[in-house]
Structure formats: C-alpha cells, structure tokens
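Supplementary notes for students who missed Thursday's class. We covered one full example, reproduced here. Read the sequence, then the structure, then the short commentary at the end.
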Amino acid sequence: MGKILVVDDDELIAMALSIQLRNAGHQVLVLHSGLRAVAAASKEDFNLIIMDIGMAAGDGLSSTMNLRRQPRSAQVPVILITAGRHPDLRTRAMEVGAAAFFEKPYDEAALLSRAADLIALDSRP
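Structure (token representation):
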C-alpha cells in the first residue's frame, strides 16, 4: 500500500477521505493548506497526493505547479478534487500536471480505485 498526502481545508471531507484510505490499508497524512502540502512534500516521500483545488492557503492548482518544481515531488501523482463547477477546471487541472480530477461529491469507490491504480504505477518505494 502507499503513503498518501490528503489536502483539503474542509476538515470533515479530509477526515472522511483519510478514514477510507486507511481502511484500504494506506498510510495517510492530512493537511489543510496547499502551502503546507508543498512544504511537507519537500521533506517526505509520498506515493500519491489528493488535493482540493479551492483552498485559501495555497489553492490546489498553484500548489500542484509548485510540487512539480520540486525534485522530491515532481513525479508524485496528484489527484485534484473540487466543489467548483467551472467548465475549465478539469482542463486546468490536467495542464498543471494532475493525474486525475474529481468533482465533489465524488464517487468514493472510483476515487479509491484511481488512487490504488496510481500507487501501483508509482515506481518509487
């Protein structure tokens, strides 16, 4: 299983997602800002990052771009999630390097399945 960083400023969503991931056997770290996520990813290795787009302290799009600039996190798959309904969000998510995109409320089984697939593809320990 993998080490996953969950980033969402909505504590309830972050907690629910972390419980689901832990129940699936993953190790999970939860943070509530994109700025903290970028800092954590510069110090720790993760197999996957699941991040909300709409956060006040470092939104998911700019944080993903910053993750791509750091050697340690440049290749870590990122799943971006959002409650936003802007038609171009999916395109913008892919442009910054997201491996997947989900709109809230997301299908939990689909998100967990995609997370498992991305971790399986990850070649880092």
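Commentary. The longest strand covers residues 3-7. Strands lie at 3-7, 27-31, 48-52, 78-82, 100-103. If anything here is unclear, bring it to office hours.
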